[in-house]
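B., you asked whether I could sanity-check this one before it goes into the benchmark set. Here's the sequence:
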Amino acid sequence: QVQLVESGGGLVQAGGSLRLSCAASGSIFSINAMGWYRQAPGKQRELVATITSGGRINHADSVKDRFTISRDNAKNTVYLQMNSLKPEDTAVYYCNARAVFPPKDYWGQGTQVTVSS
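And here's what the prediction gave me:
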């Protein structure tokens, strides 16, 4: 089992910045990739960014050049630096860990990000 604990959400004005953190514990040796997803009210959960254990990074087009995912392997923590925030970035942000043995997706509890105009 993998446990994920998120922190760093909050309320910010448009143009501002926030940094989300996600600390993993448990069977972390089984994790191949971690990432962030978000879900706005009335919308489906969507990918924001992912990073593999090998360091391969993928950002959604909607956040490229504004958001940056990174990881600290020593702390088993993944970060999402969010700059130039827009009201449309308002959502609950979920941390995800994808394990490969056995294959399973783990999710954090979610953290609210609200961007005011």
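One thing to flag: The first strand starts at residue 2 and ends at 7. Otherwise nothing jumped out at me.
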